[in-house]
Amino acid sequence: MADLVLRHVDVVHPATARVERDRRITLRDGRIAALEADDTAGLDDAEFDGTGLFALPGLIDCHVHVNAMTADLGSIVDESPAYVAARASQILRGMLERGFTTVRDVGGADFGLAAAVDEGIFAGPRIFFCGKALSQTGGHGDGRPRGRDMHDPAYTRPVLGRIADGVAGVRAAARDEIRRGAHHLKVMISGGCASPTDRIDSLQFSDEELRAIVDEAARAGLYCAGHAYTAAAVNRGLALGFRSIEHGNLLDETSIELFLAHDAFYVPTLITYVAQVEAGAELDIAADQLAKVDQVLDGGLRALELADRAGVKIAFGTDLLGAMHRRQCDEFRLRAKVQRPEAVLRGATTIAAELLRRDDLGVFAPGAVGDVVLARGNPLADVELLADPGRAIAAVVKDGRLVA
């Protein structure tokens, strides 16, 4: 692979909220080979003129569902896996064009989709996947309506979750996802908005079941991400060893204490609730699903403010479905209502990379992965500019190659 050299760029370092002016970035074999002051020498034909552009590390979204081609998650079970994969390829391409070079899928994506991206079959961000999220019967990952008894356990069904009950059952399910290459395990520890038969405030799985899942993950060198809304669910997950809590709209001050005590990560997903409310009628989102969205919508910014003020590690996440994926970058605008620009940017770079246990992502340093977003403005001064990627993003580099 030929070197790619980015000339005369202003380099943004999210960790230190610092900008280095007029720099030359040399990318070789998919990595950053050098970061140095530029000079007055003219550009070679193979060099990229970044004059006036700000270089950011590739962005990371820590809560996506790339298989969620529709907001009607229950209908995906009846689709062809090949068709869902084709639709997922479009979703992945859109994410890459918006500057996201890495995503953490928390239900649905598998080793096949990740390999398709890694091998260049699909253009998209690299995928850290869990396979299927673990749910109890009647939990957030059980998509059956009340009138259906049969559950199709075929793993090839392109659904976001799988059902497991009892300590033996959850251990077997966890081990199976690990066998299939999971980077983490996703567990439904409370009710959710998109599931048809549970309440937001329900507590799911027994303590013994959750401990078993956490134990299986730890012994495989992995971690658990927990879907939770209420303080009771959030606190339970943190106390039982979950590394990250997803959503958490209804957490409280007691939850903050536990985040800090356990050095855990918080992954809010604000834009999904706004998008569902605004597009509900257009996308035929069920009335009962929208009613549950209303229960958690207003709490999101308050929860984010509590966590940010206390210094909790907050990673960027969006959780969008179907046509709403195009609003991925609106999360920047929502977070900017509470967080300072550098905090928002760290959530989508350095903190997200720490959650993924990848210190070679989200930073500019020799040896780091060669992911770069070239922006027409400094997000440390105004992070909301990233909410309009069509205007803000001039180019995207992934693994040392221009891809958008």
TrEMBL record:
SUPFAM superfamilies: Composite domain of metallo-dependent hydrolases (SSF51338), Metallo-dependent hydrolases (SSF51556). One of its GO terms (molecular function) is hydrolase activity, acting on carbon-nitrogen (but not peptide) bonds. Keywords: Hydrolase. Pfam families: Amidohydro_1. InterPro entries: Amidohydro-rel, Metal-dep_hydrolase_composite, Metal_Hydrolase, Metallo-dep_Hydrolase, OTAase-like. This is Imidazolonepropionase-like amidohydrolase. Residues 55-403 form the Amidohydrolase-related domain. CDD domains: Met_dep_hydrolase_A.
